[in-house]
Write a structure and sequence with these properties.
It contains 3 helices and no strands. It has a domain of 53 residues. By secondary structure, it is mainly alpha-helical. The protein is 30% helix and 0% strand.
Length: 80
């Protein structure tokens, strides 16, 4: 979202998780299926790097007009 002064603001932090221990790993399976990294889907444990995957999906969508995986799928398991 962009505020009235033109600054970008992050929203929808309902799925954010604070990780206090080091190394920073978690195994929560949550997110929008089209943007979830393989590590999340495999429940293999993951860190902040899965966010880079999601950013890559978003950039692909901005440039190509569609997501790279499961564009025409509506069921989460079909997308996975």
């Amino acid at each position: 979202m962009i505020n009235d002064q033109g600054y970008v603001r992050l929203i929808d932090m309902g799925t954010a998780k604070i990780i206090k221990k080091k190394p920073a790993w978690t195994s929560t399976i949550i997110g929008t299926p089209h943007y979830m990294a393989p590590e999340v889907l495999l429940n293999a444990g993951y860190s902040f790097y899965v966010d880079l995957w999601s950013v890559g999906i978003i950039l692909y969508e901005f440039m190509c007009g569609l997501v790279p995986f499961g564009e025409n799928c509506e069921e989460p398991y079909a997308i996975y």
